[in-house]
Specification:
The complex is a heterodimer of chains A (93) and B (490). Chain A is mostly helical and 93 residues long. Helices cover 35% and strands 4% of the residues of chain A. In chain A, helix 1 (4-13) crosses helix 2 (20-37). Chain B has helices at 8-16, 22-40, 50-62, 105-112, 155-162, 179-184, 219-229, 272-288, 303-318, 341-352, 355-368, 374-394, 420-425, 431-436, 465-479, and strands at 43-46, 74-78, 116-121, 141-142, 145-149, 168-173, 188-191, 211-216, 258-262, 291-295, 400-404, 440-447, 453-459. Chain B is α/β, with parallel strands linked by helices and 490 residues long. The chains are: A mainly alpha (93), B alpha/beta (490).
């Protein structure tokens, strides 16, 4: 069911290079995992709402106060490649 | 005095009353780590400012200021919690040089109470694993027997406490990552209700399942840490607004509970040695007056597949942030320059992530991709609601649930790492608790003939940590496990 080509397509979506051998290996493993998952097809879930957060979330707002965090120095301190205080990336256009 | 054997309370009281200094405590633990951690590999890095922080606690006391109720207590922190100025790797090459510019709320709160980060502990890469064998920094050995795994993903946090490198530690639990290593290493490990502890500054794996929690040698030690960490946080909107009522020294052991035993838990593949220890514990509790009832959680067999679909989907989304632009591992281009942004992303990620992380990102990306979303992620999220409903129905007729933590005691290093399905199936008793957002804890009760720890699990309704702790104190008192020492290092 999960061919090497399918895994390679997914790896493109995930922006994650994998080799042909890896694609074959992952494909075989995914097939096993998905087979196992397919047992769920028989569980009736009509009219069941998906559950995405397990406890009730009471949304709240914090006070809009000025704080001295996330300064430019902080944000850029881990960057692998900078020009001034800008992140350097390959040409995108 | 043997500082390594002191409880959290004894350390804090000793430091506060100047019986000994925080610096003396700090030096005692550090010396032990330096002497023995090469055999265990429980730490990825040590806090270079640890002794400085201990001296600051002593200075506060000398000045007559309140140093906090965790004064001078060293805490081993899973390398998943951001610590300002102290490298935080999540067990990955991707973050091998990442130094956060802020500290996770839960760690910050412990520090405000005088606790000291002694170091950052080893873990499965991005918490994806059950044995700490997926760590980029090498596996972590079980102090009870060094040829066995310490469990995972919080294996380093468990091993560090079992080896007396710290009195207590922090872990995170997405599908059992606190409770399983705690059970493998003879510790108490607590995953509170989803929303009890802020996830701010905790590197995300699966946001709707992740929860921080303590691991320690006693229930009391863990209670002190819970009091330090729990409660609402304006920086994480999924924390509950419910105030945390302190549990340390106030929750007492109790037997006045009606405890459910899910029949499905005993039809599964748990080892005889695990079940024997479990039923012995139940018999002992019955003698003390605890009432047991059979209950049914019919969707139990679906928990592991639902868990892996939800967790990998959320992981693929959460880990998309690691592009190697703003921080993280940066690969070298094939030619002189990078051809495109995509080429840069794809190579950074291919070289920065390990095998298990890649496997889960790909599986999650597949489950969320067009044409498969409804069949996989959406289906899993619906069955997830049924799993939670099972628990809610059962808690109408009982106060707590008990079951095993894992199907087996600790396993030998290298025996499961190449069979993902076998590794995943070991999580059958723990994952449903995360899917339902419930509090759960592991508590040691016995050892196998060869001396490996065995544990039982208590599961409570949402926000019922107090009852869970009461029963845990009872189990702790009757099992006589506290005081048993891991002897793999002797």
């Amino acid at each position: 069911m999960l061919k090497k080509e399918d895994v390679l397509k997914v790896s493109k979506l995930a922006r994650l290079n994998i080799t042909d051998e890896e694609a074959t290996e992952y494909g075989a493993q995914f097939e096993k995992i998905l087979d196992y998952f397919n047992a769920l097809v028989s569980v009736p879930t009509d009219n069941v709402e998906p559950l995405t957060t397990p406890t009730p979330v009471e949304l709240f707002l914090r006070e809009d106060e000025v704080t001295q965090t996330n300064t430019v120095e902080d944000i850029t301190s881990n960057a692998p490649d900078l020009r001034g205080n800008l992140f350097k990336v390959p040409p995108v256009v | 005095m043997d500082m390594h054997r002191l409880t959290v309370k004894e350390i804090a009281q000793g430091v506060r009353s100047k019986k000994f200094s925080a610096l003396e405590v700090a030096r005692a633990f550090r010396a032990r780590i330096e002497k023995l951690d090469q055999k265990v590999n429980s730490f990825i890095s040590l806090n270079t400012k640890f002794e400085e922080a201990a001296s600051a606690v002593d200075a506060k006391i000398a000045n007559g200021e309140d140093p906090g109720f965790l004064a001078g207590v060293p805490v081993a922190v899973k390398d998943l919690f951001c610590t300002k100025g102290l490298k935080t790797t999540a067990g990955s090459k991707m973050l091998s040089s990442f130094v956060p510019s802020y500290t996770a709320t839960c760690v910050e709160r412990l520090e405000q109470q005088g606790a000291l980060v002694i170091g950052k502990t080893n873990m499965d890469e991005f918490a994806m694993g059950s044995s700490t064998e997926t760590s980029f920094y090498g596996g972590c050995n079980n102090p009870w027997d060094l040829s066995y795994v310490a469990g995972g993903s919080s294996g380093g946090s468990a091993a560090a406490v079992a080896a007396h490198f710290a009195p207590v530690s922090l872990g995170s639990d997405t599908g059992g990552s606190i409770r399983q290593p705690a059970s493998f290493c003879g510790l108490t490990g607590i995953k509170p209700t989803y929303g009890r502890i802020s996830r701010f500054g905790m590197i995300a794996f699966a946001s709707s399942l992740d929860q921080a929690g303590p691991m320690g040698k006693t229930v009391d030690d863990c209670s002190y840490i819970l009091d330090g960490m729990c409660g609402p946080d304006e920086r994480d909107s999924t924390t509950s607004r419910k105030a945390w009522e302190p549990v340390r020294d106030s929750v007492k052991r109790s037997t006045k509970f009606r405890v459910g035993l899910p029949v499905e838990y005993f039809k599964s593949a748990a080892d005889e040695v695990v079940l024997k220890a479990f039923w012995k514990c139940i018999e002992d509790l019955k003698k003390q007056g605890v009432e047991f009832v059979d209950v049914s959680l019919p969707n139990t067999p679906h928990a592991v597949p639902v868990y892996y679909m939800v967790a990998t989907s959320e992981a693929s989304s959460n880990l998309s942030r690691y592009d190697g632009i703003r921080y993280g591992y940066r690969a070298e281009p094939e030619g002189k320059e990078w051809g495109s942004l995509e080429e840069l992303y794809s190579k950074n990620r291919a070289e920065g992530f390990g095998k298990e992380v890649k496997r889960r990102i790909l599986l999650g990306t597949f489950a969320l991709s067009s044409g498969y979303y409804d069949a996989y992620y959406a289906k899993a999220s619906k069955v997830r609601r049924l799993i939670r409903q099972d628990f809610m129905d059962v808690f109408k007729s009982c106060d707590l649930i008990m079951g095993p933590v894992t199907t087996t005691p600790a396993f030998k290093t290298g025996t499961r790492i190449n069979d993902p399905m076998k590794m995943y199936l070991n999580d059958i008793f723990t994952t449903s608790v995360n899917l339902a957002g419930l509090p759960g804890m592991s508590i040691p009760v016995a050892t196998t003939e060869s001396g490996l720890p065995l544990a039982v699990q208590i599961i409570g309704p949402h926000f019922a940590e107090k009852n869970m702790l009461s029963l845990a104190l009872e189990i702790e008192a009757i099992s006589g496990f506290v005081g048993k020492v891991a002897n793999g290092l002797q």
